[in-house]
Amino acid sequence: MLNFNAFLVGLLFGLGLIISGMTDPAKVIGFLDLAGDWNPSLAFVMAGAILIGAIAFNIAKKRQRTLLGTPMQLSSVTKLDKGLVIGSLVFGIGWGMSGFCPGPAVVSAAAGQPKAWIFVVAMLAGMALYAVLERRGRSD
């Protein structure tokens, strides 16, 4: 049942990404192009997501269990570190170059967009490289 609920939530998230235009790399790049033909529409999508996320996290912090009955697992990290800053820069550069971020890329790949598949493969390779480097760093 938990997997089915996760599937439904993922489906809802994917539909939201499609409806909002987040799966259209041209629209995303237009939003990021502040010096050119700027498209501010995704700012409203982001503002809505931030508002909903802030409310949801505020509620979640007060709970011990999720709505599905599993233990609530929220991060307790509040400090910015070098890894977070570097990761954010790499994420932003990849987003700006491709017009995809991970969620919309997976949705677009599932819809058969070849550029999204290239992004997803590169993303998975980057995740694997990070895991190798992280393990190597811990063993030193």
Descriptive account of the structure:
There is one protein chain. Helix 2 crosses helix 4 (82-98) and helix 5 (102-110) crosses helix 6. This protein has six helices and no strands. 11% of the residues are buried. The protein has helices spanning 2-20, 25-32, 41-61, 82-98, 102-110, 114-139. The termini are far apart. The chain has one domain (2-139). With 140 residues, it is an all-alpha fold. It is globular, with a radius of gyration of 17 Å.
Helix and strand topology:
Elements: H1 2-20, H2 25-32, H3 41-61, H4 82-98, H5 102-110, H6 114-139
Helix pairs in contact: 2-4, 5-6
Characteristics of this structure?
single chain, 140 residues, mainly alpha, 0% strand
Short structural description:
This protein is about 70% helix and about 0% strand. It is mainly alpha-helical and about 140 residues long.
Outline, from the CA principal axes?
globular
Helix content: over 70%
The low-confidence runs, each spanning 5 or more residues with pLDDT under 50, are none
Q: Strand content of the residues, in percent?
A: under 5%
Q: Secondary-structure element sequence?
A: HHHHHH
Number of strands: 0
- Main pleated sheet: none
Number of structural units classed as domains: 1
Q: Provide the structure class.
A: mainly alpha
Helix tally equals 6
